[in-house]
Design goal:
Blueprint lengths: L16 H62 L17 H4 L2 E3 L2 E5 L1 E5 L4 E3 L5 E3 L3 E5 L3 E2 L4 E2 L5 H11 L4 H15 L14 H5 L27 H7 L3 E2 L6 E2 L5 H6 L3 H13 L19 H8 L4 H14 E2 L4 E10 L5 E9 L4 E6 L1
Parallel strand pairs: 8-9, 10-11
Antiparallel strand pairs: 1-2, 2-12, 3-6, 4-5, 7-12, 12-13, 13-14
Length: about 375
């Protein structure tokens, strides 16, 4: 007798061909979706890596282009080494044919700065104090003369006091405190130069956050001033274009701004006469009719022939010339901005160098 296999109700032992094909289709679709998603993820990763490589390559090219612009500026200033004076009429001060859109490889580089003509940019206050206002700013394609600025490593406290008072709104007490704090920051001892307002090691050691000590040595970069007591970001922004850590401390009278001449002790009227002489008939600096002091020994006589000077002004000017002034410059800053053709990205390099081609400072942005 043949025994029949018992089949449970509602269940089937064998699947039909249609069911098997449906399962295979589902598995295939799932596999395709999975592989597609994986491909997209891998593709995005590869794309991001390619974009990163491209950006790094562009950045390297931009830095090389900017560096080439700096080298071009060094060559240009070296060609004028025989000159005995420097002014805004010099090609290195402003010459678009030399410093604008220089072609380098796949890009261009320009060396430029904001030139502030402050001949008519001040007003006389009742106290005789001068404060900057107005003026004209325009782009110059060329180099910034570092010796139109006051060297914070060399300048006396009185000179810095007058500069700060001129530029920081006439606050005499704050100007005195800040000048004294800078003096104590750079000197080798730990004694206060003035009993009130200044700071030495003990002040910086007791700061609540991140205490440190005074430098007790010359500043290497201007940014170090932000560590000095009372030097906030707003004050630094107002002062940075008038200060330097390069040069021998003497100021080029042909390029010095009004605030610097004032700080040297010229006073209101003598400062105005020097600026009037320099600006020529059109009363604008950096134009073809500018007058130039070509010899430090002749500064007093040249100005006396241009305008009348009182006996006290002659004596003051002679003293200031002997102590502070010259007509030549040796150290320059170049701000090179590079871009690749058909690209928006730019790179900036700021360098300071001397006429011998020695690079004293280099910063890439």
């Amino acid at each position: 007798m043949v025994r029949k296999r018992r089949v449970l109700p509602g269940r089937s032992v064998f699947r039909s061909p249609a069911d098997r094909r449906g399962s295979i289709l589902i598995i295939t679709i799932w596999s395709i979706c999975f592989l597609s998603t994986l491909a997209v993820i891998l593709g995005l990763g590869v794309r991001q890596k390619l974009q990163l490589v491209q950006r790094l390559d562009e950045r390297d090219k931009l830095h090389l282009i900017a560096a080439a612009g700096i080298r071009r500026a060094i060559v240009q200033i070296g060609q004028d080494r025989e000159s005995t004076f420097y002014s805004f009429l010099d090609r290195c001060a402003d010459d678009p044919s030399v410093f604008k859109d220089m072609e380098v490889g796949d890009g261009r580089v320009s060396i430029w700065y904001d030139f502030f003509d402050d001949v008519s940019s001040s007003r006389r206050e009742p106290t005789g104090r001068r404060e900057p206002t107005g003026g004209t700013t325009k782009i110059h394609y060329g180099l910034i003369d570092e010796e139109q600025k006051i060297n914070v490593n060399i300048a006396g406290t009185a000179v810095m006091e007058r500069l700060f008072e001129f530029l920081l709104g006439g606050d005499e007490t704050r100007s005195q405190d800040l000048a004294a704090a800078i003096t104590d920051w750079r000197d080798a001892d730990s004694e206060l130069s003035t009993p009130v307002g200044s700071a030495e090691d003990s002040f910086y050691r007791n700061l609540t956050y991140n205490p440190y000590e005074a430098k007790d040595a010359p500043l290497e970069t201007l940014d170090e001033l932000r560590l000095v007591k009372d030097m906030d970001a707003n004050s630094m922004e107002k002062l940075k274009d008038y200060l330097t850590v390069f040069g021998d401390g003497k100021i080029n009278i042909n390029t010095a701004p009004k605030a610097v001449l004032w700080a040297l002790g010229m006073g209101t009227y003598l400062t105005d006469k020097v600026m009037s002489y320099r600006s020529g008939k059109d009363k604008a600096l950096g134009t073809a009719d500018d007058n130039v002091f070509k010899s430090a020994a002749n500064i007093v006589s040249d100005l006396s022939q241009f305008t009348s000077l009182g006996d006290s002004e002659v004596a003051d000017l002679a003293r200031i010339v002997d102590q502070f002034l010259k007509v030549q410059s040796e150290n320059f800053m170049a701000r090179a901005v590079a871009h690749l053709n058909n690209r928006r990205n730019t790179t900036e390099v700021v360098a300071v160098f001397n006429r011998n081609g020695d690079i004293l400072y280099w910063h890439e942005f």
